[in-house]
Amino acid sequence: MAEAAAVVAESLAGYRARAARAVLEQVVLPGEELLLPGQEDGEGPGSAGERPLRLNAGARSRGRVVCGPGLRRCGDRLLVTKCGRLRHKEPGSGNGGGVYWVDSQQKRYVPVKGDHVIGIVTAKSGDIFKVDVGGSEPASLSYLSFEGATKRNRPNVQVGDLIYGQFVVANKDMEPEMVCIDSCGRANGMGVIGQDGLLFKVTLGLIRRLLAPDCEILQEVGKLYPLEIVFGMNGRIWVKAKTIQQTLILANVLEACEHMTADQRKQIFSRLAES
Amino acid sequence: MKQVLKESLPANGDTSVLAGVYGPAEVKVSKEIFNKATLEVTLRPKIGLPGVAEKSRERLIRNTCEAVVLGALHPRTSITVVLQVVSDAGSLLACCLNAACMALVDAGVPMRALFCGVTCALDSDGTLLLDPTAKQEKEARAVLTFALDSVERKLLMSTTKGLYSDAELQQCLAAAQAASQHVFRFYRESLQRRYSKS
């Protein structure tokens, strides 16, 4: 029994909460605990509770650290709940400890307030439309949430139409609600997406990459053919080019971008540009 | 809205199980739980229709997953785990548990820890065998399967068949805890490989 106990002690010894700063950009697994910057000194080996003297006292003000997707607060530590790379963003101005989040690869969308998504109208019941956004429930969209819509002037939306809108209510307890106007009452690009074109689905991580500022993929695609493209944060992309063939080529290229390295992508684009 | 979000293929020797996770998705009103997700597990044997043995394994896997998945983040939704046995050469339940865990992690279902399954067999001399083959399981005096979590190697689920003493149970548990290290290292390596491509 003594050997068994020794073996168990050895296997448990490997577990220890790590500092969040030390694990940035590395893959973290669910169940790991991360220490925030203010707590690291107390955990160091041997110091027996003494705080080391600091020459520049104001260096690390605790501020308020925002716990983003994939992390939960657990006491005064962060518990990782999804597998992915840990990322951190410094606060833009002054106070606050910035945002920590886990960049995970997922296909299933969970509605979040403020996200712009592409939905498919599945039903019209009375004054609201039911829109499928790829989440666990269909979102509701009132007919008055379009630009210039009044009780007399109803928008022309049929079952099966594509809608680009944003969520105003999206939490785990309530049915998600979306609108096609912004807070000033203007459409701002939202509303019913026009005829033709192709809607296809990609992973959520690819959408986030494409929507990041200075995305190379988008610039290269733009040089290839003239096109219209709409990205929904729920993993859906609508694309329309001059001919059906070009539309299909663009759809295939965007889907494949998930798995290609930058060099392979450049090769494919140069080959397409020649033909 | 039924898209397979993950297929994982772990193999304990020659036992392999294919796992797919769908969710959080819509749930029938009769099955919905107002404050957490409804977890459903379906285990399909390689040949024949699912029977009572599959039902009991499904329940064990479901109880383990419920202990670990943060269902409170997705109330009134359903998370479905579908397991298909591709080949069975012993230690099937442990393999199903490992497959289910990897599938849940890959689908992005929020979890408070990882879990793994380990099988121990005690033969008539009292020798402990980890991950027994089907033949060793049949000849063993007792077969014990444990599900352990990754944070502190705590016991999440145990199912045992046969005759064993209290001391032997503790021995098997300790051996399983030591063996789970290897499984969790495998999880870590394969997930790191997956994220290294992006």
From TrEMBL, chain A:
Residue stretches making up the K Homology domain: 197-244
Main location: cytoplasm
Molecular function terms, GO-annotated: RNA binding
InterPro entries, sorted: Exosome_RNA_bind1/RRP40/RRP4, KH_dom_type_1, KH_dom_type_1_sf, NA-bd_OB-fold, RRP40_KH-I, RRP40_N, Rrp40_S1
Gene Ontology CC terms, in alphabetical order: cytoplasmic exosome (RNase complex); cytosol; euchromatin; nuclear exosome (RNase complex); nucleolus; nucleoplasm
Presence of the UniProt keyword Acetylation in the record: yes
Chain residue ranges for the region called Disordered: 35-55
GO biological process assignments: CUT catabolic process; DNA deamination; exonucleolytic trimming to generate mature 3'-end of 5.8S rRNA from tricistronic rRNA transcript (SSU-rRNA, 5.8S rRNA, LSU-rRNA); isotype switching; mRNA catabolic process; nuclear polyadenylation-dependent rRNA catabolic process; poly(A)-dependent snoRNA 3'-end processing; positive regulation of isotype switching
UniProtKB keywords: Acetylation, Cytoplasm, Exosome, Isopeptide bond, Nucleus, RNA-binding, rRNA processing, Ubl conjugation
UniProt subcellular location: Cytoplasm; Nucleus, Nucleolus
Exosome complex component RRP40 N-terminal domain segment(s): 26-105
Annotated family: Belongs to the RRP40 family.
Subunit structure comment from the entry: Component of the RNA exosome core complex (Exo-9), composed of EXOSC1, EXOSC2, EXOSC3, EXOSC4, EXOSC5, EXOSC6, EXOSC7, EXOSC8 and EXOSC9; within the complex interacts with EXOSC5 and EXOSC9. The catalytically inactive RNA exosome core complex (Exo-9) associates with the catalytic subunit EXOSC10/RRP6. Exo-9 may associate with DIS3 to form the nucleolar exosome complex, or DIS3L to form the cytoplasmic exosome complex. Exo-9 is formed by a hexameric base ring consisting of the heterodimers EXOSC4-EXOSC9, EXOSC5-EXOSC8 and EXOSC6-EXOSC7, and a cap ring consisting of EXOSC1, EXOSC2 and EXOSC3.
The protein's name in its UniProt record: Exosome complex component RRP40
Source organism of this protein record: Tursiops truncatus
TrEMBL record, chain B:
Gene Ontology annotations of biological process type: nuclear mRNA surveillance; poly(A)-dependent snoRNA 3'-end processing; rRNA catabolic process; rRNA processing; U4 snRNA 3'-end processing
An example Gene Ontology CC term for this record: nucleolus
InterPro entries named among the record's database cross-references: ExoRNase_PH_dom1, ExoRNase_PH_dom2, ExoRNase_PH_dom2_sf, PNPase/RNase_PH_dom_sf, Ribosomal_Su5_D2-typ_SF, RNase_PH
Signal sequence region: none
UniProt keywords, alphabetically: Cytoplasm, DNA-binding, Exosome, Nucleus, Phosphoprotein, rRNA processing
Main localization of the protein described in the UniProt heading: cytoplasm
SUPFAM superfamilies (alphabetical): Ribonuclease PH domain 2-like, Ribosomal protein S5 domain 2-like
Cellular localization per UniProt: Cytoplasm; Nucleus, Nucleolus
CDD domains named in the record: RNase_PH_RRP46
Residues covered by the Exoribonuclease phosphorolytic domain: 12-110, 114-178
A single GO molecular function term of this UniProt record: RNA binding
Similarity comment text for this entry: Belongs to the RNase PH family.
PANTHER family reported in the protein's UniProt record: EXOSOME COMPLEX COMPONENT (PTHR11953), EXOSOME COMPLEX COMPONENT RRP46 (PTHR11953:SF1)
Subunit and partners: Homodimer. Component of the RNA exosome core complex (Exo-9), composed of EXOSC1, EXOSC2, EXOSC3, EXOSC4, EXOSC5, EXOSC6, EXOSC7, EXOSC8 and EXOSC9; within the complex interacts with EXOSC3, EXOSC8, and EXOSC9. The catalytically inactive RNA exosome core complex (Exo-9) associates with the catalytic subunit EXOSC10/RRP6. Exo-9 may associate with DIS3 to form the nucleolar exosome complex, or DIS3L to form the cytoplasmic exosome complex.
Name by which UniProt lists this protein: Exosome complex component RRP46
Originating species: Tursiops truncatus (Atlantic bottle-nosed dolphin)
Gene: EXOSC5
